[in-house]
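User: I'm preparing a small set of examples for a lab meeting where we compare how different chains pack in three dimensions. I only have the primary sequence for this one, and I'd like the structure in token form so I can line it up with the others. Please keep the answer compact; I'll paste it straight into my notes.
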Amino acid sequence: LDGQAVSTEETPFARCLRGDVYQNYDVMISVGIDVQLFISCSGAPLLADDGSIDGAVVVIRDVTEYKRHDAVRDEFVAVAAHELRAPLAAVKGYTDLLVRRILQDANGTERDRKGIMMLSRQIEHLVQLVDNLLNVSRLDSGQLELHLTRVDLVGLIEASVERISLGDANHNFVFNGPSKLEIICDQLRVQQVFTNLLSNAARYSAAHTRITVELWVERCANEQSLLRGMSDETCVVVAVRDEGVGMSPEIQAKVFDRYYRANTATATSGLGLGVYLSREIVVRHGGHIWLESAPGQGTSFYVMLPVSPIGSL
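Assistant: Understood. Below is the structure token output for the 313-residue chain.
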């Protein structure tokens, strides 16, 4: 559903007849004037005894109503995010002022300091939620632009770790990597990626466990770089590892979906947008994001970014 016409070779049956096996292949069909139907297809080829393709099975579901409901929800999300942004900025500004005053007050009590820091953490959480909502709106409208500059990725990650750790005294955050590494990226967007991944790691792992961030450089080996004919391109890989509950294969298959939240005992908040947005931002940088996990064995998210994206500075 990218707005492009589906070629004959990409129709559901044609894909099966050339050997493709697929699920949830969404297609929009125009019926008359201003009438649109949405179908979701899953299909597989039928093989003869000699292994040749003898036919195809395609299951087609009408998902028009689901798409309409999604459109209404996304419109509400966009309006709500924009309406929340201004008052939240004012609340955050006054909260930051209170934090500075109370922490500098020699007569302030420990109860006051703990209370204002708790308030500050919750405000930061709200800011992150609203930022994610706004970014979803920008994605849908095609307005999520990248402003590429030369950035010290190590400093960016350390700032993200510091931001999350200040609001989370229950986890031990560890960073392993070089002292400095510059890449060309959108600093704000990439910082959002690591803030989201670190927040998720804290949310889905028990208190007093370790969250580790590792960074290294290697040759790019993702589909994006190969398609650009740049298999020798240098990429940086960042791993965010937790010691949390882990994910089953069923959850892993859905974790990058918009609004998806895993139902676990440790997950208490979130909109299910952080990982989805992280993938969109990474892909727009010509990178790749994936995960490794197993139930009870924690989760590792990997982000691969080209040091110099195509068309960059």
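A couple of notes for your slides: The mean pLDDT is 85. Residues 149-306 form a domain with the Heat Shock Protein 90 fold (CATH 3.30.565.10).

User: Perfect, thanks.
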